[in-house]
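The following block was generated as part of the benchmark described in Methods. Ligand: zinc ion.
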Amino acid sequence: MDLEEKKNNLGEIVNRYRPDIKPFEDVYRHLHTNPELSGQEEETAKIASNHLKSLDFEVHTKIGGHGVAGILRNGDGPTILLRADMDALPVKEQTGLPYASTKHIKDKDGVKPVMHACGHDSHVATLMAASTLLNSAREHWSGTLICIFQPAEEHLDGAQAMLDDGLYDKIPKPDLVLASHVMRMRAGTVNLHAGPLLTAADAYDVRVFGRGGHGSAPQTTIDPIVIGAAIVTKLQSIVSREVTPGKMAVVTCGSIHAGNSPNIIPAHLDLQLNVRTFDDDVRKRVCGAIHRIIEAECQAAGAVEKPMVKLTYSTPSTINDGKTIDSLRETFQPFFGENLVEMEPPAASEDFSLLATAVGAPYVMWMFGGTDPETWDDAVAKGTVDRLPGNHSPFFAPVIQPTLRTGIDAMALGALTFLKK
Ligand SMILES: [Zn+2]
Ligand SMILES: [Zn+2]
């Protein structure tokens, strides 16, 4: 490699301009100790926006709640959007880390423990550091860089809220949207996965109306518990009988509640359902079948009032753009070497793709590992990887390094792949 070539090698740029990571480790620990629930990310947003302001970004705040968008214009070229989510979860932390959260927050349902159990604290810290790196390396790239700190990912409505609040009236429309997520993988590793990555998620609140009465006189009532039991059983036939074998679909009833006494038949029953799919056709079929079955079971029982089926959240599947993955692989492979690993996509959901599909742009999310390498290797040897704490576990405790450094490098390298001169 001659000197000129070496100067323009993207990995070299990342290595040369990577900032001192210590201050970002401090940010990470601070965020971990002080997590904020979805929609309440005020302090986290302030830390992120103040950081972007300290660089040369044009900064917009309070977009769709506490959303932050920074723009760094650096000549002709594509507009690349990098996204980090900021919110934590109502989980009681049990990691025993010296910087563990002991925080409780009040929301509409009462006082709850709060923990960064999905690692979004690492996303904020890595995007802050990557923005510093790209800001310092400006002479090596051309185009427009956008860094977004998104609220309320765990409620799957933060991206839509930013769009509804006129995000793309405030910032240029991106040609490509990139994001990353820390996962139960060996720390230091990165995974690029083309095609279906995360499932679509639809959730329903269902209320079945019967007619209440005395437990000893069922003939005078319409028992919603019997209707509910039939619905839950019949829902199991959707995936087994209506979805093409081999296609991905999950229908889960996560909550069922009715009545509070042995001798009273209640007037109604509540169910909460969750649906996961990849294909749009499968999604339509499954969601249609849910409505059909609930209504038919109510009718079969002679219920007078129609059931209520309310969609409480809905987010599309995340399908990584194949061409973008190919380009990323070209720069990630030489840089990460054997740390670029294969991984089965997790059965989780995300809303960041909306930031891309809203403007017809392609998008990619990659994963980076957070599990202590020694712990990981030990679990692989024992065949107990599945038992390691993953995202949303009260024991989820990414090691700070090499997790953060890997996240930062991948984010900067990912952006440079498309912004390079
Ligand atoms: Zn999560
Ligand atoms: Zn997450």
